[in-house]
């Protein structure tokens, strides 16, 4: 119970701190190597872009995983008593509008849609996936 929750919180803080340090280092690398990045082909991914994708997918996993403890608790209690429905309603509206903003911003040219979709996939999965899970929570 309490010990595993404390360990999970410590692990979460450690991962977030590491991600912040990596992100700051990547920003420094980006500003230092900006001229080199501009000369590279648009089809290849640099270290900075790949770091962004990795952070996006890690964020997606944590974001989707954040709903499972509530789902498990509701299932164990066989009740949703104590759940803040306003929190979930606002989160659902936020995720819906965020996901829709990514979809509606999709390029009109078909040749750009595939790369756009793949580039935004972790955020689409996070927003629409959590929206789907929030339906079960509420």
Automatic annotation (TrEMBL):
Coiled coil: none annotated. Gene3D superfamilies: 1.20.1280.290. InterPro entries: LAAT-1, PQ-loop_rpt. It comes from the Eukaryota. GO terms for molecular function: L-lysine transmembrane transporter activity. The chain crosses the membrane at residues 9-29, 44-64, 85-104, 116-137. It holds the Pfam family PQ-loop. Keywords: Membrane, Transmembrane, Transmembrane helix. It is a multi-pass membrane protein. It is found in: Membrane. GO terms for cellular component: lysosomal membrane. Belongs to the laat-1 family. This is LAAT1 protein. It comes from Zapornia atra (Henderson crake).
